[in-house]
Design a protein that fits this description.
Elements (H helix, E strand, L loop, with lengths): L1 E3 L4 E2 H9 L5 H7 L10 H19 L1
Antiparallel strand pairs: 1-2
Helix pairs in contact: 1-3
Bound molecules: FE2/S2 (inorganic) cluster.
FE2/S2 (inorganic) cluster binds next to loops.
Amino acid sequence: MYVCNCNGIREREVRAAIEAGAKRPVEVFIACETRAQCARCVCDMRQMIDDHGEALRYAAE
Ligand code: FES
C-alpha cells in the first residue's frame, strides 16, 4: 500500500525509515531520497511516527 502517491513511497518504506530513526515526515522523505510534493501524505506519516513512538513506550513499560 502506498502512503505517498506522489513519490510512490510504500508503507513498508515509511516503516523502515521510522525504524531507522526518522522522527519527522521530512526525515522519511530524505530516507527515501525524495521530497514532499503535495504533502497530503504528511499526516499519515506523522500518525505512523506517533504510533511507533507509542509502541516503543508501551514496550518499555
Ligand atoms: S502524497 Fe506524498 S507528497 Fe503527495
